[in-house]
Amino acid sequence: MREKKFKETERIAETIRALAVPGMKPKELIEAVKESHPSASRKDIARAAFLTVIMSSDYDQEDTLTLHDLASEARDSDAGMGNS
After folding, report:
1. What is the pTM of this model?
2. What does the pLDDT read at residue 79?
3. Helical packing angle, 2-19 and 26-36, nearest 10°
4. I want to staple 78 with a disulfide (CB 3.0 to 4.6 A). Which of 2, 12, 42, 52 is the partner?
């Protein structure tokens, strides 16, 4: 089960990496990701965004900061909504 969840997180992270551009609002990116992964929760997307941040931190600092903002906003809004 854990391996399956990680594989899905990796797939979402790949989508995030492909779609994210500097200046993109987190809400826009979340909506775009949900088009490819309709069953993904905001929490799933936040986890994948953090994974993307970790994986890309050595390559592009500006993209890394954008992704970190997305992950933080998704996590914070998810906590306020009580979603899992």
Report:
1. 0.69
2. 54
3. 120
4. 42
Q: What is the pLDDT of residues 24-75, one digit of tens each?
A: 888 898 899 999 999 999 899 989 988 887 877 666 666 667 777 777 776 6
Question: What is the per-residue DSSP string for 5-62?
Answer: HHHHHHHHHHHHHHH--TT--HHHHHHHHHHH-TT--HHHHHHHHHHHHHHHTTT-HH
Q: Domain of residue 77: give its range.
A: 2-81
Q: Tell me the C-alpha to C-alpha distance, in Å, between residue 3 and each of 7, 8, 9, 10, 61.
A: 6, 9, 10, 10, 29
- For 70, the token pair is 């997305």
